[in-house]
């Protein structure tokens, strides 16, 4: 039996980022969401716009640095990105949609793809 491989720090951080909420409103990390499959975790499709914004804002807060370049809004730093998401402005909604796409792809990879074996090691 082989020993588990070391998981790179960046991947560990990705696995610890929230992707959903519990029914009580607590953040749920990707690794927990996939590994535990608890009924108390909200599905992505059941999240409200406010809940999605809350999750994305928290994901942004946990990033060491955020710098986004846009055509209309120029360069956006971490604080502005969080403010736009929390206010659910058109730019914030775009950021939420983009991050929800990333979350969905990460969940798919964690359940069926390359991340599955890594999460099973945790």
Helices and strands in order:
Layout: H1 9-16, E1 18-21, E2 27-29, H2 30-36, H3 49-62, E3 67-70, E4 74-77, H4 78-87, H5 90-112, H6 115-121
Antiparallel strand pairs: 1-2, 3-4
Helix pairs in contact: 2-5, 3-4, 4-5, 5-6
Q: What is the number of strand segments?
A: 4
Span of the ends, CA to CA: 16 Å
**What gross morphology would you assign?**
globular
Largest sheet entry: 2 strands, antiparallel
Strands of the biggest beta sheet: in what spatial order? 1-2
Q: DSSP strand (E) fraction?
A: 5-15%
- Which stretches are poorly predicted, pLDDT < 50 over at least 5 residues? none
Discrete helix count: 6
Q: What is the CA-based Rg, rounded?
A: 15 Å
Instruction: Estimate percent helicity.
Output: 55-70%
- How do the helices and strands follow one another from N- to C-terminus? HEEHHEEHHH
Mean pLDDT: 86
Briefly note the structural class of the backbone: alpha+beta
Describe the structure in brief.
Helices cover 57% and strands 12% of the residues. With 122 residues, the chain is of the alpha+beta class. The mean pLDDT is 86.
